[in-house]
Design goal:
The chain has a domain of 143 residues. Strands 1-2 form a two-stranded antiparallel ribbon. The relative contact order is 0.08. The longest helix has 35 residues. It has nine helices and two strands. It is elongated, with a radius of gyration of 47 Å. By secondary structure, the chain is mostly helical. InterPro entries: PGBD. This is PiggyBac transposable element-derived protein 4-like. It comes from Diabrotica virgifera virgifera.
Length: 278
């Protein structure tokens, strides 16, 4: 209340509608200045505020110094990276000793002259007559089961089915491997007579209808003997037979490098993994 202007001063204020002269304006400014000085309204920081200001100033100064040191350190490190220096890798060297017993089993049925050995000899050692006989039996059984399951129209290709044999299955597998190397948009294109698809190899091995029938009925296991808890029953027996033959043909050493391959498959399978990035 002490800082409020007195009543006498308020009464001396001119009328709002009356224009003030220059002398009256100067007098009012002087009176306001005197009141501010007498009321002690000037800003006087306390000791605590002065301490806070000093702390903030010191903190800002330390941050600037730290940034400067980091900048100098970064520049020095960048300059050092451009310089070549020797690296001691003695502690990284591993004394790898290959046992030397890696070998491929040379079968007695192979040519005595090893220079005459061809990839087909090795292939027939892995895919032997026993495996071919398994494919023949299960493919013929599957075709009979499918034909007896329902009736088909007279024009259906299924009526043209005839039991297969080992020689034909061997040719069929050869065509499949050839298609993996020479890729065309559709299977029927391998039998096309168009100049754009002038491939006579597969058409000389078997007809298109016969190949598609074999592909339709190809099977490796008996559906009626499948175990309910084995989700790989359709390839279980074939897998075990081929695994045994691969193990018999090679004596691996203790140092192995195992590569993996991913097969694109969009069918419905419980234990498959979908990896979009692959």
């Amino acid at each position: 209340m002490d800082n409020l202007p007195s009543t006498s001063k308020m009464q001396r204020l001119p009328n709002k509608n009356k224009k003030l002269t220059e002398a009256e304006l100067l007098k009012l400014l002087e009176e306001d200045s005197d009141e501010c000085v007498l009321s002690g309204s000037e800003y006087n920081p306390s000791d605590e505020e002065e301490s806070d200001i000093e702390d903030e100033s010191n903190s800002d100064s330390s941050l600037l110094d730290e940034n400067a040191r980091q900048s100098v350190k970064s520049n020095d490190q960048q300059n050092n990276d451009d310089e070549w220096y020797e690296v001691d890798c003695t502690h990284l060297r591993l004394d790898i000793q290959f046992p030397g017993n890696e070998s491929y089993v040379y079968d007695d049925r192979y040519p005595q002259n090893r220079t005459e050995l061809t990839p087909f000899h090795v292939y027939r050692k892995l895919i032997d007559d026993e495996i071919l006989q398994l494919i023949v039996e299960e493919t013929n059984r599957n075709a009979a089961q499918v034909k007896n399951a329902q009736r088909y129209s007279r024009s259906s290709r299924i009526h043209a089915w005839k039991p297969t044999n080992k020689e034909e299955i061997l040719k069929f597998l050869g065509c499949v491997m050839y298609m993996g190397v020479v890729k065309l948009p559709k299977i029927a294109d391998y039998w096309s007579k168009s100049p754009l698809y002038n491939f006579t190899f597969i058409s000389s091995v078997m007809t298109r209808n016969r190949f598609q029938l074999l592909l339709r009925f190809l099977h490796f296991a008996d559906n009626t003997a499948a175990l309910p808890n084995d989700r790989c029953h359709k390839i279980r027996k074939l897998f075990e037979m081929t695994q045994l033959r691969f193990a018999q043909q090679c004596n691996p050493g203790s140092i192995l490098v195992i590569d993996e391959s991913m097969i694109p498959f969009r069918g419905r399978l419980l234990f498959k993994q979908y990896i979009p990035s692959k």
